[in-house]
Amino acid sequence: MKDEPSLQVSEVFYSIQGESSYAGYPCLFFRFSGCNLRCSYCDAKYTYEEPATPTPLSTLLTEAAQYPSALIEITGGEPLLQEAVYPLMDELLAAGRTVLLETNGSINIERVPKEVVKIIDLKCPDSGMTEKMDLANLDLLTPHDEVKFVVSSRADYDWARAMMTQHRLAEKAKLILSPVIGSLQPALLAQWLMADALPARLQLQLHTLLWPGMKRGV
Q1: How far is the C-alpha of 157 from the C-alpha of 175, rounded, in Å?
Q2: Any residues with CB less than 8 A from the CB of 95 and at least 6 apart, and which?
Q3: Is residue 214 classed as helix, strand or coil in its secondary structure?
Q4: What is the rounded CA–CA span in Å between residue 32 and residue 10?
Q5: 214: pLDDT confidence band, cut at 50, 70 and 90?
């Protein structure tokens, strides 16, 4: 197709959704290349360190049609860096698909269709990227959206708790706390969460439990 939009793709794979309120459901992942942040704990550096595969939008839609009952997750890297991600989301929604967008919190989500489930990874201080966050996004959330805090330490937890209170996030979206494995014991984060009775869920990366040691395609 002449002048068809194309996206820079890192990988496309079918797996189990692993780290949101949709965890456990079959999901087709479109992982796009490129990222404007450099988080200290990044587990997908290959999305910006390795060459991308330019892929026409129609090819991605054809792939989605092979899994008609699955969720579709658009992730990265940072998918909102690519202009063609917007027509992709529009086309998937028009086909009746449930679309999840995982975004790093640094790019405004105003142009993202309301029907898309936006999962904003709000960067805690230990990530080194807190100052890059676009906090205007917090006023654009809808009840089906999610805010995820990846927590490395007690300082991160305290920051996340303060953000929840300051921005009244529990009234705007679902909240998730996820420990950085190797930096924070999940049981300790669970203790803090219970002690404060925060309106958030503890989330472990389900795919890492199902397929330990696998870094891609899960």
Answers
A1: 13
A2: 61, 64, 65
A3: coil
A4: 5
A5: low
Domains of the chain plus CATH, in order, are: 6-210 (3.20.20.70)
Helix (H, G, I), strand (E, B) or coil at 78: coil
pTM (predicted TM-score)? 0.93
Amino acid letter, 132: K
- Sequence-distant (≥ 6) Cβ neighbours of residue 66 within 8 angstroms: none
Phi/psi region, residue 115 (left: phi>0; alpha: psi -120 to 50; beta: rest), is: alpha
Taking a C-beta distance cutoff of 8 angstroms, is the pair 24, 183 a contact? no
Q: How far is CA 66 from CA 59, 69, 85, in A?
A: 11, 9, 19
pLDDT in tens, 63-101: 999 999 999 999 999 999 999 999 999 999 999 999 999
